[in-house]
TrEMBL record:
<keyword id="KW-0030">Aminoacyl-tRNA synthetase</keyword>
<dbReference type="GO" id="GO:0004826">
    <property type="term" value="F:phenylalanine-tRNA ligase activity"/>
</dbReference>
<keyword id="KW-0648">Protein biosynthesis</keyword>
<dbReference type="GO" id="GO:0000287">
    <property type="term" value="F:magnesium ion binding"/>
</dbReference>
<dbReference type="GO" id="GO:0005737">
    <property type="term" value="C:cytoplasm"/>
</dbReference>
<protein>
    <recommendedName>
        <fullName>Phenylalanine--tRNA ligase alpha subunit</fullName>
        <ecNumber>6.1.1.20</ecNumber>
    </recommendedName>
</protein>
<dbReference type="GO" id="GO:0000049">
    <property type="term" value="F:tRNA binding"/>
</dbReference>
<dbReference type="Pfam" id="PF01409">
    <property type="entry name" value="tRNA-synt_2d"/>
</dbReference>
<comment type="subunit">
    <text>Tetramer of two alpha and two beta subunits.</text>
</comment>
<feature type="domain" description="Aminoacyl-transfer RNA synthetases class-II family profile">
    <location>
        <begin position="106"/>
        <end position="332"/>
    </location>
</feature>
<dbReference type="InterPro" id="IPR045864">
    <property type="entry name" value="aa-tRNA-synth_II/BPL/LPL"/>
</dbReference>
<keyword id="KW-0460">Magnesium</keyword>
<dbReference type="InterPro" id="IPR004188">
    <property type="entry name" value="Phe-tRNA_ligase_II_N"/>
</dbReference>
<keyword id="KW-0479">Metal-binding</keyword>
<keyword id="KW-0436">Ligase</keyword>
<dbReference type="GO" id="GO:0005524">
    <property type="term" value="F:ATP binding"/>
</dbReference>
<dbReference type="InterPro" id="IPR002319">
    <property type="entry name" value="Phenylalanyl-tRNA_Synthase"/>
</dbReference>
Amino acid sequence: MLEKIDDLLVEVQNFQSSTKDETEQFRLKFNGKKGIMNDFYDALKQIPNEQKKDFGQKINILRNAVNEKLEELKSSTESKIILEKEDLTRPGFPLELGSRHPINLVKNRIIEIFKSIGFAVADGPEIEDDWHNFTALNLPEYHPARDMQDTFFIEQNPDVLLRTHTSSVQIRYMEENEPPMRILAPGRVFRNEAVSSRSHCIFHQIEGLYIDENVSFADLKQTIQFFTTELFGKSKIRMRPSYFPFTEPSAEVDVYWGLNSETDYRITKGTGWLEIMGCGMVDPAVLKNVNIDPDKFSGYAFGMGIERIVMLLYQMSDIRMFFENDKRMLEQFKSL
Ligand code: DAH
């Protein structure tokens, strides 16, 4: 009996199979219900006790060899099947390239332009308090200009709100740094407004701030002209008097877009001019609020909506597209 097991062990170890059927025959021969292994287990019950130990060990060795062989055959036939099915000369699957969101593309371009003339990037929180979003910017409680920006308050707490503009970053930066300072603050802002093709309750702004000794309105004008030339390739600008509580004097900047096409007529309403940002000289009251001496320092600030600039640059007509993120729209920015 023990010798028979040794012979079977050799048979198992030498067994080779090239088809699934042969492997199945092999499995049935040893592990099937009426297979060799079950015969041995039956025989084990009959033999005298003193031989049981040796016999049992031999059967175990055989059982392990059979199972190992079966595993080995299984994996080799599986990989054979894969090799037969796959065409290894087929070209690979192309990996799809992603693209940057147009808002980020233009934001980065604007940052690049201002970085080249010494502006650094500053950051602030989207959830603000009343002081940084309003009061320090010369918009005390009950100031009528607060109504210009419909505000989302959090849990009806008047001191916890979503910032309505990136001007709040000016205040934070001036509170923590000494002049001279020259910063750009890009970010998301929120207003409780009805969503339409022209306005959204979430959008992006870029704020600029420059504080130093003897900063003048001429510096502001030069800087903005440099910016419009770099971004749009258009250097003709005009400044219209305007009102913002945090700047005095304040202005709105128009770029001369031209009247070369039907689109130019439409988007400029036949004037050739397009409004792109608000700006002005930082109001001395604001400087006082952040402990900067207005007799020694002066400065300018400006703020623009990024969506509007993207819409002008790429002739897009609906601001909602930036938040719907249809892949067909996003994919058009792949090569930029
Ligand atoms: N914060 C203004 C707004 O959201 C934009 C703005 C205007 C920012 C003039 C400025 C500025 O820094 O000087 O409408």
